[in-house]
Amino acid sequence: MLELWWIRHGQSQWNVENRWQGHSDIPLSEEGEQQALRLRRSLSEVHFDAVYSSDLGRAVRTAELALPGIAPRRDGRLREVHFGEFEGLTRADMSPEQLERLKVWFQDPYAARVLGGESLSDVGERIRDWQSELASSGRIAIFTHGGVIRCHLWAAAGGGNPWRVQIDNCSTTCVRHGPAGAEVRWVNDTSFQE
User: Fold this and answer.
1) With the C-alpha atoms ordered 127, 129, 130, 132, is the resulting torsion angle positive or negative?
2) Cα dist. 36→12, 60, 70, 91, 94 in Å?
3) Coil, strand, or helix at residue 40?
4) What is the pTM for the complete model shown?
């Protein structure tokens, strides 16, 4: 049995401002660092056979704070969706044409590509490529991004609109993979933050 613990990075200032981050390398906010430290207490009794992280600083820093002493294996395939022309923008910053393109993308984010960016199918392909290199058993922590976690859940659950699933900063989501298929154990657990 392969047990994947998908962990979204802590809050960044762009999360606070509702800016599209994507591949932009935005650091954790002070609150994001505190979230990762609270997560540390929750993970202190959990053994992981391997720890991976997106190569973006906000995910790496979350891993370093949450699991100190364990250097995560950084992998660019675990990066957030590349939001192309939308990166760094809020909805209020967008032109009417950009808002229309955003609407089209949200209608089918698996087929549509953001101008200069990716579709969720592109992200799913990256994740499948990464996952194909893993051992068939063990417990693995993956520090990554909301879009990546949603893509994996969509694949594990067999479809649906991934944006209807809430994935909070520093939350954990667990999916087990075995001979019978994928089993979603929990989604968006932030109980340790209370």
Assistant:
1) positive
2) 12, 11, 14, 28, 32
3) helix
4) 0.94
- On whether the CB atoms of residues 150 and 6 are closer than 8 A, the answer is no
Tokens of 16: 């606070």
**129 CB-near residues (< 8 Å, 6+ apart):** 77
- Beta strand 181-189 pairing with 172-178: antiparallel
Q: Which of 3, 23, 80, 118 is catalytic?
A: 80
Confidence tier at 162 by pLDDT (50, 70, 90): low
Of the candidates 9, 82, 145, 152, the residue annotated as catalytic is: 9
Given the structure tokens 């891993």, which residue do they identify? 63
Question: Which residue is listed with tokens 């019978």?
Answer: 180
User: How far apart are alpha carbons 149 and 174 in whole angstroms?
Assistant: 10
- State yes or no: is 30 an active-site residue: no
For the chain, the C-alpha Rg in angstroms (whole number) is 16
Query: Catalytic site residue 82?
Result: no
Residue-wise DSSP of 78-109: GSPP--GGGTT--GGGS-HHHHHHHHHHHH-T
Query: Which residues make Cβ contacts (< 8 Å) with residue 191, sequence separation at least 6?
Result: 42
How much helix, strand and coil, in percent to the nearest 5, is found in the chain?
A: 40, 20, 40
Give the pLDDT confidence of 129-155 residue by residue, as tens digits: 999 999 889 999 999 999 999 999 988
Assign domain 2-193 to a CATH class: alpha beta
